[in-house]
Amino acid sequence: MNEKSELKRVWKGGKKNLPFYIISTIVLFIFGIVFVCGYTDLWYVKDNVDFKHPVEATITDLRAHSSGTDGLYWYSLFYEYTSFDGTYYCGDIGYYNSREAATAELNIGDKVQIYIDGHGKSVPSDAYRNTPNLWVLIVGVVCLIASLAVFIILVIPHKWQYK
Q: Which terminus of the chain, N or C, has less C-beta within 10 A?
């Protein structure tokens, strides 16, 4: 047998670490994008929603949300509002562990105050009135930097050894 045909190029870090680096890069990048997009959404709400003039929306539904295969549910109240110019607004109010807890405060047909932007975006609370949460941006940037670092570790020329 030829001696060269038996030589294999093996990354010094080992073959088992390579999938870990690839998956870590993808997961961290996705988390970073989600948090940065969430921050921009918070910023949009702060700058574009009219918090001076709330409108009354109607609770129209109680919705159950499943967390997957474990059979657990949480509930939210769904509101709808159509402005005088025909713009439709909808959204969820609160998240509750049980149907009873969701209907303890509000029932279908009750009115709630929401804040609108005039273009179809609404929020049920004035909690967005203040500057968006900086921690959302910080987590997003940290995840993006971590994914970039793991990606750089992947692409930097490593020492190769022959076996």
A: N
Q: Residues 114-119: what's their mean pLDDT? A: 84
Q: Can you state the angle between helices 17-48 and 134-155, rounded to 10 degrees?
A: 150
Residue among 59, 93, 89 at smallest CA distance from 74? 93
* Separation between Cα atoms, residue 106 and residue 114, nearest integer Å: 14
Task: State the Cα–Cα distance between residues 96 and 94, nearest whole angstrom.
Answer: 7
Whole-model pTM?
A: 0.58
pLDDT digits (tens, 9 = 90+) for 62-98: 888 887 777 778 888 889 998 888 889 888 887 788 8
Going by C-beta distance under 8 Å and a sequence separation of 6 or more, which residues neighbour residue 93? 59, 76, 77, 78, 79, 106, 112, 124
